[in-house]
Amino acid sequence: xxxxxxxxxxxxxxxxxxxxxxxxxxxxxxxxxxxxxxxxxxxxxxxxxxxxxxxxxxxxxxxxxxxxxxxxxxxxxxxxxxxxxxxxxxxxxxxxxxxxxxxxxxxxxxxxxxxxxxxxxxxxxxxxxxxxxxxxxxxxxxxxxxxxxxxxxxxxxxxxxxxxxxxxxxxxxxxx
Length: 176
Ligand code: SF4
Description:
The chain is of the alpha+beta class. It is about 35% helix and about 10% strand. It has helices at about 10-20, 40-50, 50-55, 65-75, 85-105, 145-150; strands spanning about 25-30, 80-85, 110, 170-175. It has a four-stranded antiparallel β-sheet with strand order 1-2-4-3, covered by helices on one side. α1 (about 10-20) packs antiparallel against α5. The chain starts with 8 loop residues before the first helix and ends with a strand. Iron/sulfur cluster binds near residues 115, 117, 123 and 134.
């Protein structure tokens, strides 16, 4: 495998076309400085999210501190930010584009998004995950302020007040 060190226009076009095919509303190439971090996101993760308390395989810190998470993300140069209305579509697109980027030679390609790969999560039902290698970290657990990050790019991100509100969900593929 040849290691690439920069996403070129052809890569970008291919990944964004893949994203559209996979049902994404938007896919934009961003830089690490476009991602805003706030330690209050970690506070909301550890105490504001019912999933964290369950300490399942898909939801935990894996001993990555707030500072380490920032260092990890800032070690990348090019990041694809995905926007979807459906959480499962988003999880699937992230894993597929991550894999495509890896096969293109970006061997550190890595997704960030709370796992919703399956419509019915086995872990949520107290069973083993059939594909634990596909679980990726949640943006909030890494201290990402997703509201500020999306809005800064002109993308919608609001607190949902009703279960019928249109969902705007975001995730990232760290590419190189
Ligand atoms: S069962 Fe599916 S949704 Fe649940 S953690 Fe595993 S891959 Fe993710």
